[in-house]
Give the backbone structure.
Amino acid sequence: MVQLEAFRVFADLKPDSLEKLDGMIRRIDYGADELIYMEGAPAFGFYLVFTGAVKVVKRSAKGKSQILKIIGPGGLLGETTLFDKGVHNAYAKTLATCTVGFIERGDFFYFLERHPKVVFRFYERLSAEIKSFQNKLAERSYASSKERLARLILALGRSGIELSRGELAEMAGVSSKTAIRTLGELEARGIVSIDNRKITILKEEYLQRLMEPFPASLDEAVII
């Protein structure tokens, strides 16, 4: 389990301030495939992921799903509604057993008044995430399905997070058929090995060559 000091937004806090913040957190244990919050639900605060992994998913009116991002230990969840006091624009569901901490908005704002540096850290993080989503949107316009899957496989391999074929397809923005075919090709060529959900990268340099540079400064806890 990561500690509070592992969250980049709290990097400037001293031990006594971290202790005060820790007292505001309500820790909740979730099993795999459990809903943390629903799309359209009112947001009353935000979450810290201490263990496990969570996917944030947007569903269309026609029932199609798109995984927007995956949050691992040391990442924030639901923070985009913190300052606008709106509703969640996607739902969050666990990928594995998780320990998640919840901080109520009013308590956190009281804390921010006394620790303004955290506000700048929050905006720094939100800015980096916006840039990453912009890059990903542009990638959808010019990158092949193989390139998009290669980038995702590399990110997942470094994090140790495992996704189903359907989830890989959702996150890369390709069809399940394309994801299965591309993974089969990569496995046949000895680039990766696949055991159920686990993808082991055998030739990282090959996957790197498939991709164009994707500038982003997100922390390792977030995959977009």
In short: The chain has two domains: 4-133, 143-214. The first strand starts at residue 26 and ends at 30. Residues 185 and 195 are 15 Å apart (CA to CA). The mean pLDDT is 92.
